[in-house]
């Protein structure tokens, strides 16, 4: 089983609600019936302007991201059929970035009690970034996985889930060389929008800032809040 992450981009006429409705509706039906043979499908949509008018964390290309589509397939050979469906998504330019990733879940949500097709409770903080050229692969993964990851429970003590994806291959020509994709879920939404609940101690925040250089450059970080819908879990 292989995991594909797709990033879809906004244009000047993007309509958040219309894009969400199309993505979790007709486009999800088309994706599940495509030759790609999608076994599991989830979408993360950026229709957050009303619920979160002033996001506490919005960096880089975060405002430009319309949605992210996560698909698990047995084989990536028919992956282009996914791109064909997503390129027609309302509110995007037709540009879709496709990445093959390996998933790690340092913090797993204990007990899902909502069905497929229903918006997941809370909000997902979605981040992605490249590996700095100054770091080797070994240095990058050591800083991200072995130093940063263990410190994040103190940084975000109310976080409910943490999914960490390492990009194995960039599958679409011309796409940015992303190496890391991270989804962190907070529920209720107030645990994310209230800085006093989002962050832990001052010491934890300082430690996170100091350790950033071990795996990323601040100016290359991209992030935004998104709402998750598991179409087929």
Structural topology:
Blueprint lengths: L1 E9 L5 H17 L5 E8 L19 E9 L6 H7 L5 E16 L15 E8 L6 H19 L5 E10 L7 E9 L3 H4 L1 H4 L3 H10 L10 E11 L1
Antiparallel strand pairs: 1-3, 1-4, 2-3, 2-8, 4-6, 5-7, 5-8, 6-7
Helix pairs in contact: 1-2, 3-6
Notable characteristics:
single chain, 233 residues, alpha+beta, Alpha-Beta Plaits, eight-stranded antiparallel barrel, 6 helices, globular
Rg computed from alpha carbons, rounded to a whole number of angstroms: 17 Å
User: What about the largest sheet?
Assistant: 8 strands, antiparallel, barrel
Average pLDDT reading: 95
Task: Tell me the number of structural domains.
Answer: 1
Which architecture does the CATH hierarchy give at level 2? 2-Layer Sandwich
Distance between the termini: 14 Å
* Poorly predicted sequence stretches spanning 5 or more consecutive residues: none
CATH class: Alpha Beta
DSSP strand content: 25-35%
SSE arrangement, N to C: EHEEHEEHEEHHHE
The secondary-structure class comes to: alpha+beta
What is the CATH third-level topology name? Alpha-Beta Plaits
Helix segment tally: 6
Q: Tell me roughly what share of residues is in helical segments.
A: 25-40%
Per the principal axes of the C-alpha atoms, what is the gross shape?
globular
Strand order, biggest sheet?
A: 1-3-2-8-5-7-6-4
